[in-house]
Amino acid sequence: MLGSRHEEITQELLVIMLPKYTALLGRLLPSVSLWKKTVLQSIEHLFLLVNHGSKNSDVLTSHLPFIDHILKLIQNPFFLNKLPNQFSSSELQLIDTTIYLLSNCISNSTILTHIKEKKLSSVFLRYTSAEDESIVYNTHSLLAYTTGDDDIQSMKDPGALLSTVFNAFKHSVEENSSNSIQLLQTMQALVQHEQLKEEIVKQNMLGFLIQSTDRLVGTALALLLKLLCTLAFNSKIADVLRDNDDLKEKVQELSKDSEEEEEVHKAADGLVWKLVKGRRK
Questions:
Q1: 224 with 263: CB under 8 angstroms?
Q2: Is the dihedral of CA 175, 177, 180, 183 positive or negative?
Q3: pLDDT, tens digit, for every residue of 45-83?
Q4: Is the bond preceding 65 in cis, omega lying within 30 degrees of 0?
Q5: Using DSSP, how many helices (H) and how many strands (E) does the chain show?
Q6: Which residues of 224-247 are buried (b: 16+ CB within 10 A; e: fewer)?
């Protein structure tokens, strides 16, 4: 109850203060290159405050100019030209917090649409070169959800986007890292685009994804099975999956195992339908 009331107070204050925050950012942005450590830290703390609370993104829908200022900040050559690793510690913290704030905001459909309309895929792609794991992972999420079919088609090398996420996923599986869940969610969003399904085949990613069904458990395994189900809408990939007897046997066992976690059981059942039952039709 106390936590809920605290969140309500935070939102009420945010409604009052956001116009002031927006005006403040508008005045400060033209002098980004002159920002001292204290200013960088103050802006970061401001973003942390805005990011606090599960419903703050809903408040931001009435203050989209604030989002615009954030987007202008990450587009500023002052920061872009310091990639991948020339940031001061204060600059790095600010960029990390900024990308994290944006990645949380896109859970709101209004803000997601607004960011999509800005067509910033090329900018977000540059941040995937950062030598900071948090920035890279959150940028992957931004790319996955804000990149449209037109963006994919206009990219010089759309496969590079998928390969950076896949390579990070491969590393996380090999290192038994919890990052696998976020990376699988990102890949799931990316492969909604048919062109990127084709890249899965071209870049020989399918083999490792199949192997990973033996290494992941729980939520990560459920997400991987859902990913394979989505990929199976591509006829080439569906044929490869159907020809893998070990995979079909494993997935059928998972779908029948009453002791398996419900999310895994449901995901396995969906893949079984796609590979076995769906084919009979």
A1: no
A2: negative
A3: 999 989 876 567 888 999 999 999 999 999 999 999 999
A4: no
A5: 19, 0
A6: bbbbbbbbbebeebbebbbebeeb
Question: In Å, how far are 13, 181, 241 from 166, measured between CA atoms?
Answer: 41, 12, 18
pLDDT tens by residue, 241-267:
999 999 999 999 998 876 778 899 999
CB atoms within 10 A of CB 9: 11
Length of the chain: 281
User: Residues 10, 53: contact at Cβ < 8 Å?
Assistant: yes
Q: ∠161-60-108 over CA atoms, to 5°?
A: 50
Q: What is the mean pLDDT of the chain?
A: 90
* Rounded to 5°, angle at Cα 119 from 115 and 121: 100
Residue 166: is it exposed, middle or buried by C-beta count within 10 angstroms (0-12/13-18/19+)?
Answer: buried
Give the tokens for residue 182: 């976020």
Number of CB atoms found within 10 A of residue 39's CB: 15
Query: How many angstroms separate the CA atoms of 275 and 191, rounded?
Result: 18
DSSP H/E element including 154: helix 149-154
> Mean per-residue pLDDT for 87-96?
97
DSSP secondary structure, 165-187, as one string: HHHHHHHHHHTT-TTHHHHHHHH
